[in-house]
Amino acid sequence: MLNMKRPTHRLVLASLLISIFLGGCTTAGYRAPVAQFNEAATIVVETSRIYITQVNRVERDKYIDEQAAAGQPIALREIETQSLLTPDDIALRLNALDQLTRYGDLLLKLANSDAPNAIAKQAEGLGKAVEQLSTDVNARSGRPENKGFQNAIGPVTSIVSQVARLAAERKIKEALDTAVKRGEKPVTDLLDVLSEETIAAYERKRNYLSRSRTWAVDAYNEEARKGERANREALKKYAMQIKAQLDEWDTFAAARPQESLAAFAEAHVALVAYAHSQKTPKDLNEFVGEMERFLYRAKKVEQAIKKLSNL
Amino acid sequence: MKKSELVRLIGDVLTEIDVLASGLVPGTAERKRLDTLRNGLDARQREVVKAIFNENNKKYMAVTTQINNANQEMAGTLQDLKKVAQSLDLLTKFVGLVDEVVSLAA
Fold it and tell me: Is A210 in contact with B8 (Cβ distance < 8 A)?
């Protein structure tokens, strides 16, 4: 039990009370949860990036395995037609994911507000990057695949200039609140579009892995149907392949990038709610809890994806 | 139904088809027909992924509701190896409905 009569403990208590009080008028309350938000956001972006970058590889591998399973010839021309996205389309999506990372970084820098000039520069940097992204999106607006991004990214530009100005004026807490409040809709829209994209990428891979299970079982059963003439070693090998496929299938079920994007969206709602709140200790407590949950969910998906790549 | 839900629902059906297929001998008439339906549904899922839909369009909403109902109708049947013929008929209907939704793409 704490002995509150000792001067050091009184000092600790006083510091805590001051921190809670300052939480209402400085960025102090934001620091730890925004750091968690930023860490989780970085994980979500990285895990989503894996699915987006692999989308064409999944289609290509699937085609090759299908041809092999059916005993059909493989044609390079056919392989080329399997791609779902062009390299430019992929770059666009990765750039959109980068904006989420930059948004998290900007919030973290604002929350730690040690170097206002650097923050102003960061905000301007985000502004330029977002404008470039907006230009890229418009340039590709003829392709229906990019229409969702076109609608989602444009409004992001609106949050940046004001945040940069406030940061330059060293109105850090106001800049932080503004970044969160004005980022609400554009970030939500961007998360929606990215979620749809990653669900599609995930489902195409699920489709491939599901069929791979059937091929593995077919190979085993074909050998097993030979009865007495069945090659025992081959049967063991095929059985191992079935087990490996099923392990991958089970792990894949937990490696859902949309789960971490949904966690991101919920955490962002909590972030916005905190920005709008009176920032009482209760508000802060709820905010911290939400960020911890976000980080936990993001790490869970990350672990499954890492396990998947090790299989 | 949102497009992402449609993609996922088709994925669920593809997964059930694969489980059913693993119980049928490759090269038999039933398995061949099932493989053909699987290939068709796979191709359509790909088209749905690439397509843009107006999710508020009445026709889109009506067809996706039918797809949902067709999926529910198949529940329990696709897992039953004694009902392969019935499964194949239901799947044919399902693929036809997905075809219909693909035709609504902008």
Answer: no
Count how many Cα atoms sit within 13 Å of the Cα of residue A171 in the half-sphere of its side chain: 11
Q: Which amino acid is at A44?
A: V
- Chain B positions touching A145 (Cβ under 8 A) are 50, 52
Say if residues A183 and B28 touch (Cβ distance below 8 Å).
Answer: no
Shortest CA distance from A202: residue in chain B: B8
Q: Where are the beta strands (DSSP E) in A34-96?
A: none
Give the pLDDT score at A232: 96
Mutating which of A63, A90, A199 best tests the B interface, going by the most B Cβ atoms within 10 A?
A199
Q: Which of B7, B18, B106 sits opposite A199 (nearest CB)?
A: B7
Neighbours of A168 (CB within 10 A): 16
- Closest among A44, A24, A84, A42 to A60, alpha carbons compared: A84
Region B77-106 average pLDDT? 92
CB B44 within 8 A of CB B10: yes
Q: Which of chain B's residues have a Cβ under 8 Å away from the Cβ of A144? A: 50-52, 105-106
Q: A90: closest CA among A42, A49, A150, A147? A: A49
Q: How many residues does chain A have?
A: 311
Of A84, A211, A258, the CB nearest to B50: A84
Which positions ≥6 away from A160 have C-beta within 8 Å?
Answer: A123, A124, A126, A127, A130
How many C-alpha atoms does B88 have within 13 Å on its Cβ side?
14
**Which residues of chain A fall short of a pLDDT of 70?**
1-27, 113-165, 167-170, 310-311
Give the separation between CA B60 and CA B40, rounded to whole angstroms. 20
In angstroms, the separation between the Cα of residue A123 and the nearest Cα of chain B is 33
| Residue numbers in A near B49 (CB within 8 A) | 84, 200, 203-204
Query: Taking the CA of residue A281 as centre, how many other CA atoms within 13 Å lie in the half-sphere pointing to its CB?
Result: 6
How confident is the model over A36-59, as pLDDT tens digits? 999 999 999 999 999 999 999 999
Q: How many CB pairs below 8 A link A and B? A: 59
pTM: 0.83
